[in-house]
Structure formats: C-alpha cells, structure tokens
Design brief:
heterodimer, A: about 900 residues, Ubiquitin-like (UB roll), Rossmann fold, 28 helices, B: about 150 residues, Glutaredoxin, 7 helices
Chain lengths: ~900, ~150
C-alpha cells in the first residue's frame, strides 16, 4: 500500500491507500466525533457527526466513509462544521429520552460527551416518560437489556450482530421516527438466533444496550478497569474487569477495541461468565475431613497435616506412591511450581495436568513431526487464510473469537472444507462438508493424501528439501483408495476428492483441529497424519498456513510449556536428557527423581491398583472430567490421602482429606499462555473471599511443610525463575508483557517473539513423515449398543460447568444436559422433541432431554459434559490413546430408549 | 409460532425462479398476494430456503407500509392523505370511514371485511378527495357517498 500525504487542519500527515479520513485522523490523535462508526464493522456514514470539510468538495463529507487521496486538504473543526454537528446532535436528542443521572453509561456515553463538547441547549434534552425501558425484544433476558428511549438508531448493534458475529439476531424495525431495534418478529432475544455474545452492548455508543445484571451497580466514575486475560478457552482474549471501587465487586466485563488478539470482541463466556467469582458457594476456609465429615480449620493446621501426610507416604512407599495433578485453569507460575514441588519435595515425576484429557496427542504428535507441539500460526493470521481445512473442531462454539476471525476470512471469500460428524456452524457454511463417521479420521486423511499424490497435487520440492521419511509414508498410503474411505467413513467419494484438491491447491491453506482429532485411541496418530497432510502439500511454515490445534483451556498451552508433564521440564526440555537433569538439579538443589512417572489416567488406574497412595489435586475435578466415572470414584476412594485446592467444593474434593480454598483468576496475578503461544498477564482485580489464597502460595506452603522450602514475594519472581531455566521463555518478563503479550519462542530480552513457526526449517530440522494405519475405535457398535456417542463442548458452558453455571444469563440459556440425535433414529425409537431419554453404555446410564434434528449423522449421538448432576462421563469409555493415554471421549457405543 | 399453514403457495412462488437477496421485495409481494398477509411461519420457511436471514426480511417487511404481518380484511381501503385531498377535506373522509366502520387507520374490522389504511398520495389528485378499495378508485367523496360505497361491499 502506497503512502499518501494529506493535510489535516494545516498539519502534514501521511496515510495509506484505502484509509479513511477518520482512520488517519485517529492515528494522528486528531479527534473527529462519531457515533455510528466502530472499527470492527463497515462504516456507513449514518450519524453525520463526523462531517469534515475537504477542499474541492462542494459539501462536507463523512470522515468515516471518505477515503484519503494524495494532497487532500481536510478541515475537521471549522465553525461551520461545529454548527452542523451541533444541529445533528440536537436532532438526535429529539429522539433520545433519558436522564444521565440514572443511566449506567453515565461517563461512558458518546452522546453525553458530545452534548457537553458542543454545549447543546438543555431545551432539546428530553426526559424519559419512565426510567424503565418499554417492553421489547430484550424483556425477560437475563443478559442483555435494550432501552429504546436511549437509542439513537446508529445501527451499530444491528451491524455487529450481522457482520462480525453473523448471528443475525437483530434488525431495525419500522421506519422514520418509529424505528427501533428488535428481533425478527419481535420474538424474545433468548428464543432468537442470538448467541448472547453481548457484542451489541460493546458497540452501543449510548446507554441503550447494557448488561441487565449491571444496572444500578455502578457508573463509570465509580469503576476501575483492570486488564486481564479471559479465564475460559485458549484464545486468550484480553478483557477489562470493571470493578466498583466501593462495593469491591466486578460490575461488568468489557474489552478494548484494538487489543490483541480479540480487538474488543468477547463471547458469552467472556462477557457473561464471571459471576462465579462472587458466588456465595466459594470456599473460604481450609477444610479437614474427620470421621467422614469436613470441619473448618486454620491454615497452619491444614498445611502441617498435608505436609506431614505427603511426606510420610513418599518416604514409606517411594516416588510412585504420590502424584501431583496440576491445572491448566491456573497460571504458568502455578504450573511451574506444581511440577517443581513434584520433582523436589515430592521426589517424583508423577506430574500431569489436564492436557491429557484433551490435547496431549497434539503435544506429542506435532512434536514428533515438527519438533514443537503448538499452534504453528497466529490468531491474527486466521483472517488471511484462503482455504480452511477444519477437522474435528467447532470453532464458533468452542473458540468463538477465533471463529470470528474465520468469519472475517469467509466474508473475504475464503474456501472452507469441514470434516465433522456434526453440522456445526462452520459445516453449514462450508464449500465441502464431509460428515464422516466418528473415529474414521485416518481413513479419510490417508485417502486424501493418496489422491493428492496420485494426481500430483503435492509439493514435491517442499517434501524433498524440508522433510524426511517420505517413501515409507507414501508406500503405506497405497492401500487407502478414495472408494474404500468413502465406504468406511460413510461419505460421498467425490466430496473427499474435492476436499483433497481444495486443500492441496489453496494459497494458502491452513489446518485447524481440536478434540475431534485428539480424543481417540489413535489421537496422536490422527495428529501426526494432519502434520503429514500439511507437509505433503507444503502448507506450513508460511503466514496463515500451518497446522493449528486450537487449545481448549485458557492456559493449557502454558500448563504444558511449564513442564507439568512426567517426561518433560519447562520448555519441553526432556527429563531423559542427562544435561537437562543436571541443570535442574543445580538450579533446584536436588537429586532428580528417578521414576518415570505417569499421566492422570495412570494415576487413577494406579490408585485402583494400590500403587498410588497420596494425591495432590490442584483445581481439577477428575471425578467429572475423566471417563467412566464409576471406576474413577472407586479408584480414588482407595487412596490414603487426597488434598484438593479448589475455589468450589468439587466432586473430587468431596473425596479429599483436606480441601484448601484458592483464589479465582480475578483475585491473583500471573500469566496465561494462549493457543497462539502468547504469554499474557492476568491481574488481581478484587479481594479473595475469606481466607482463600493464590494457588502458588499454597503450593509454596505445602512444599515447605514437606521439607523443601519455597518462597517467593510475588508471581513475577516465580516467572523469572522459570524463564531463567526455559530457553523459549527466556526473553519474557512481566515488564515486557505489561501491555501486549509475547509469543514464544522468545529466547532473549530483545527478541520480538515468534508469530508463526517452522519458517525456513522445522524446529526438529526436517519434518518427519509418519506412516499411519487406520485403526478402528476401541468400542464398536453391536445389537445392544447400536449407536455411536461423542461428547463435546457447547458455546454457553465450559467443561464441568461449575464456573459458567453460576452465571444467570448462561443458566437461562442452557442449564441442563441433553442429547442430540438424528430424526431418523428418533423416529425408530419413538422419541419426540423434548422427550426424556435414557442413554446407556457398557459403563452406566443417565437420563436427559432429547434434541432431535440433523445436526448429527444417522446412527450418531452427541452430548455435552457440562452438567454436574447429569454427568456424561458416567457413559464414556476409559480406552486410551496408545501414546498419551488420552481417553476416547469421541467414540463409545450407546443405546437410547424413551425414559 | 403455532401456525400450521399450507406451504404449497410458497413452493410455487419459489419454484418459479432461483432467488437472490435482491428479489426479496417481489417475493414478499407474491407471498402477501397468495396468503393475504405475511405469516411468520411462511417467512421463517422463506428464510430457510433462500438463506436470507429472518432478521433482514423482518426489517424489510416493517419498513414498507404495503406489507402486513397480520391477516388483512377481505377488502383493503386506502384513503389518500395527499395535499390535494387535504385541501378538499380529505381528513374528514378519514374520520368518516372511521365513523362508519368503527376502526382507526391501520386496523381491520372485527368481521375481517375491511382493512383501513391511509396513503401519502394515490396520484389521482383530479379525483380529490379520493380513496381506493382493492383496485378500484372512488373520487369526489363525501360522507354519504362513503357510507353507500362501503355498504356496497359484501
């Protein structure tokens, strides 16, 4: 884009082709008032507040729509322009009826700001007939409320709903002075296509749209904004907790436009999911179990007990008898300390975190293929992808803000190939949707690659120069014809051909996947095969092109990076490497543990077998999150000593001997690493309830009590120790990421971070092809269990639901478990919409509501796992990936009958 | 939405040609002719089949006075509010219709016989004051004439 020189108010400034006057003015800190413009949506020039004079133009032009041209002379603040704007404001106030005194937006309202700036006459400001909004589409919603009295009909809410969110819930209704915002046919917002993202609120320049629960809880002058990172999925959205400085409570969550990576966008969980922080169900005092009952205790007593018992078990039974389960909900600092306590005070490599439940196959698979087990590209690059290959991933629900970036690319004409047994949003909008049978991914990818090679679509030069082991890989593919795959996967052969060709020829193409790939007994192989596909087509190592696992939890990237894995130390330094072990022995002043260690699924098995006896569980609830619940409970009950650190009493904590109250994410400092490897800050915004302490402090206390003293003044000190031992984090510090996070690898303090990986060479040198054979899932259907059940996440809830279900807006939308089934199966079973059905597998049964349609394939079932009282993991199969021990949540044989 | 209307007329309309969003207004006109109004169920189906989001269709429907979301009467009265009619006692004609039928502009009689609308101008100023019933013009109106015209409809 060429530089363009223009003059604004006599000042020479330089812009770019395609830039509007408003954008350029903003860049140069020249203020032009505007009401209908939002950088996230297309400018329309509706409000007329941004009128400016351009030399040579007969009339003033709207700065938001008018693009700059060379030598343009612009005046933004002449007397005539001011008078015009004043008239516009007076006309707006003719429609705006409301008093700033009772409005939540008071102090954060553009209309109010300009009324002051332009000294609008009080005569034109009309009072509302009533302080309450008239009944409208938002009436009854627990999330969003609309007050047409305060609406200036700028259309930002309607446009962001259409253009950015593509939810198409809102519209203008009527014409001229009767225009109001509404839904189609005025149906209630909760029943419309609204996804409760609240983007409409974020776009509203006045107080017409607001969070219902925030009304009356504090105006801008009483609020303090604390910048932090969202505690839900791995996108790592930056958000501001708006805290009332008097009540010390979070009033609402907002996000600043232009922040990285989410540009002011948030989803339902980010915007409406914080209420759990102030829940009265929070744990506030240490609890010790005596005679089967919990009693409150002081910290000293509880810590002493934990230290003594863990030490006793370790000394008596050896390093395999105790295990440490860290949490990717917690910070990097806390994960670092958990693996440190395991290997120092604990003397064991029995350390794991929840990645085993989700993306461990990614870490293992991509590391073996490329040398690094992380998303290869940045979120910012998603919008420029030209061909998406999305497999086993539902980004608009599970990673909504990355979903928005994908929508941006689609709006620009990107091609979309989706392989998913379910008709998700992306599947519905795909050019090619392959609705294959759950568990047949490798059959599909092998056939695609075979077809690509047969037709010479592959990147021969890339394969020859940058990869190795191609021949044996190619030999293996010969068995996998398109026809064979079409039959096994249950899809049309031509669709597979089309998908293969589109992906191979994309300029560029990028693979996105999540747990539909990893949560299989062949999870790691599934991942390696996607790596094969990318290498074969040379679709990696470029901007907007690579293999992109969207990480599930806020800090699951960080939890793995911190070495909370039995086989690696921080930065994936291998435990097996004697040089590495020596480095850590020196740094920590210990003798490095000699046992191999295991994963959470091993811990549970070993608990059942009597090998494991002591279990330190940080912020995890394996009773709800691990497969085959009955067996998990039975195994955990055999343990001699369980200690849980929690914010709520969890199902696992109920089995514990000691439960310690921890702070939530809003009550502590630290860092999370998001899916694109960006290390970002979280900050303390409110005080912890009762005696709750940050997890990292509790871990230090326990370590000290076990005889290995640990003490840090703050989270930053922990981070610095970790960074000094971790080359890929070596250049990162709290100071450097104060404003914008950095993406690892970032080896030294001057390094700018790394946007995409494997640019000229793979991290491991050459990309390694793996020959992957298709294997059937562990459990197949039979007469008794004729259907295939998969589990997954919905947009509205998060994992075991104990955080999201504390939010009224979320509960209103989704508070009970359900099962999706195809209407052909429903008809056979005589099940109607809304009927209760009993779902049964070889491990257990639960009764839930039936949702009937064509979202799943005939023969397939789908259930979320967010509901404590109807736990889906009673049903799932405890069969594991052969390499990472991740459970096959995506396939188990099930039967359904009308309850 | 508990309606259960016959979707055959919609099938016929959509069968006639492939549709793009710019065909929306003619489509709505045809649907309204077929059903007498724009039923929510039919519009939801239209949205599904054309991929034009329902919110957009609703925006268009409510923007134009010619579209109705409620069933109309058997006969539609359109009384002119134009300048020529205004100076020739047009407003009194509106009052007269209200008096005879006991409904305000925008409403439909209880027996579903008449829907009463006013329009900005019918373009037949030489007939002022003027109204249309269905496709027929009635000019040079007065109160008595209105009464007998309305009585002539069954």
């Amino acid at each position: 884009m060429a530089d363009i020189k223009v003059t604004i108010n006599g000042k020479n400034v330089t812009g770019k082709t395609g830039q509007t006057i408003l954008e350029l003015a903003k860049e140069n800190k020249i203020k032009i008032p505007h009401l209908c413009n939002d950088r996230r949506i297309k400018p329309v020039g509706a409000c007329r507040m941004c009128l400016v004079d351009v030399e040579g133009q007969r009339n003033p032009v709207t700065a938001c729509t008018f693009e700059i041209t060379p030598d343009m002379v612009i005046q933004t603040d002449t007397d005539e322009i001011r008078q015009l704007r004043k008239t516009v404001l007076e006309l707006l106030f003719y429609e705006h009826r409301g008093s700033c005194a009772t409005c939540d937006a008071n102090g954060d309202c553009k209309l109010q700001r300009y009324a002051y700036d332009y000294q609008i006459s009080e005569d034109v400001i009309k009072a509302a007939e009533t302080a309450q909004p008239k009944e409208n589409y938002s009436t009854g919603s627990e999330a969003i409320e609309y007050d047409s009295n305060k609406c200036i009909r700028c259309g930002r809410c309607v446009r962001i709903c259409e253009e950015v969110q593509m939810a198409n819930a809102l519209t203008f209704k009527g014409r001229a002075s009767n225009v109001e915002v509404s839904t189609a046919f005025d149906i209630a917002l909760i029943d419309s296509t609204c996804v409760i993202c609240g983007q409409c609120i974020s776009a509203c320049p006045t107080g017409a749209l607001y969070e219902k629960y925030s009304k009356g809880k504090g105006q801008t002058k009483e609020l303090k904004k604390v910048r932090t990172t969202c505690p839900y999925c791995g996108v790592g959205c930056q958000m501001d907790l708006n805290v009332n400085t008097t009540t010390k409570k979070i009033v609402r969550v907002t996000s600043e436009k232009s922040c990285v990576p989410n540009d002011g966008n948030l989803c339902v969980k980010g915007r409406f999911g914080f209420h759990y922080v102030h829940s009265d169900k929070r744990l506030t005092k240490p609890l010790i179990k005596e005679n089967g009952q919990f009693r409150e205790a002081e910290w000293d007593e509880a810590i002493a007990l934990v230290g003594k018992r863990l030490k006793e078990i370790r000394d008596k039974y050896g390093p395999d008898s105790i295990a440490f389960l860290s949490s990717c909900r917690c910070t990097n600092e806390e994960n670092y300390l958990m693996q440190k306590i395991a290997r120092t005070a604990g003397g064991t490599n029995n350390i794991d975190q929840c990645a085993t439940t989700c993306h461990a196959p990614t870490v293992a698979g991509l590391a073996s293929s490329f040398g690094s087990g992380a998303m290869t590209n940045s979120i910012d690059e998603v919008k420029d992808v030209q061909t998406f290959f999305i497999i086993g991933s539902n980004p608009t629900e599970a990673h909504p803000i990355i979903g928005l970036e994908m929508k941006k690319a689609l709006a620009k004409g990107a091609k979309l190939v989706v392989c998913d047994p379910r008709k998700t949003w992306v599947a519905k909008h795909a050019d090619v949707h392959i609705q294959h049978k759950p568990g047949t991914d490798n059959m599909l990818t092998n056939a695609m690659m075979n077809y690509i090679i047969e037709n010479d679509f592959h990147a021969k030069e890339f394969v020859a120069n940058r990869c190795e082991d191609f021949e044996q890989f190619r030999e293996n593919l010969k068995d996998y014809t398109i026809e064979k795959a079409a039959k096994e996967c249950g899809v049309d052969a031509d669709l597979i051909r089309k998908a293969a060709e589109m992906y191979a020829k994309g300029t560029p193409s990028s693979i996105f996947y999540t747990l539909g790939i990893t949560e299989h007994t062949c999870g790691t192989e599934n991942v390696q095969n996607l790596a094969n596909l990318a290498m074969l087509c040379g679709q990696i190592g470029k901007p907007s092109s690579g293999v992109n696992p969207l990480r599930g939890q806020n800090n699951v990237q960080g939890g793995c990076d911190m070495g909370a894995i039995y086989s690696v130390l921080p930065g994936y330094q291998k435990v097996a490497d004697p040089v590495v072990r020596e480095k850590f022995e020196k740094a920590w002043d210990i003798k490095f543990p000699t046992n191999i260690g295991g994963r959470v699924t091993d811990f549970i098995e070993q608990a059942g077998d009597g090998i494991l006896r002591g279990f330190y569980c940080l912020g995890e609830d394996p009773v709800l999150s691990e497969p085959n619940q009955a067996k998990v409970i039975e195994s955990l009950k055999k343990l001699e000593f369980i200690i849980c650190q929690e914010i709520f009493m969890s199902e696992t904590a109920k089995l514990a001997d000691v439960v310690l109250p921890a702070t939530s994410w809003a009550e502590k400092n630290g860092t999370f690493t998001n899916s694109e490897r960006r290390v970002q800050r979280i900050r303390k915004a409110v005080d912890a309830p009762g005696q709750a302490k940050p997890d990292w402090q509790i871990t230090c206390l326990i370590s000290t009590a076990m005889g290995y003293p640990m003490s840090y003044n703050n989270a930053s000190e922990v981070f610095d120790e970790m960074a000094s031992l971790t080359p890929s984090y070596g250049g990162i510090s709290f100071d450097r990421i104060d404003k914008i996070g950095l993406q690892w690898p970032c080896p030294d303090p001057d390094h700018p971070g790394t946007g995409y990986l494997h640019k000229d060479k793979f991290v491991r040198g050459k990309g390694l092809f793996h020959k992957i054979k298709f294997r059937h899932p562990a459990e197949t259907t039979d007469e008794d269990y004729p259907l295939i059940l998969s589990t997954g996440r919905t947009l509205y809830n998060y994992n075991i639901g104990n955080m999201t279900q504390k939010s009224k807006p979320i509960r209103q939308k989704q508070s009970r478990n359900f099962i999706e089934m195809h209407f052909s199966d429903a008809e056979k079973l005589g099940v109607k919409k809304g009927d209760k059905v009993n779902v049964r597998t070889r491990r257990g049964d639960i009764t839930v509501e039936a949702v009937i349609g064509d979202k799943v394939r005939p023969g397939a079932l789908w259930m979320p796992f967010h509901f404590i009282d109807q736990p889906t993991n009673k049903l799932t199969n405890d069969a594991f990936d052969n390499i990472t021990r991740t459970a096959e949540y995506k396939v188990c044989a099930a039967a359904v009958k009308k309850a | 939405m508990t309606q259960n209307l016959d979707l055959k007329p919609l099938d016929n309309i959509l069968e006639a040609k492939t549709t793009t969003p710019s065909d929306l207004i003619p489509l709505l006109q045809q649907i309204q002719t077929a059903y007498g109004y724009l039923p929510q169920q039919v519009i939801a189906e239209l949205s599904k089949r054309t991929n034009i989001p329902a919110n957009k269709i609703f925006g268009v429907i409510t923007f134009y006075e010619q579209f109705h979301l409620e069933p109309n009467g058997k006969h539609t009265i359109r009384c002119c509010r134009g300048t020529a009619c205004h100076v020739k006692n047009g407003p009194k004609m509106i009052d007269a219709i209200t008096e005879v039928l006991q409904i305000e502009p925008g409403q439909t009689t209880e027996d579903m016989k008449f829907t009463f609308e006013t329009v900005a101008c019918l373009g037949t100023c030489f007939l002022a004051p003027v109204m249309m019933i269905n496709n027929d013009y009635y000019g040079h109106l007065n109160k008595n004439k209105i009464q007998s015209i309305l009585e002539s409809y069954s």
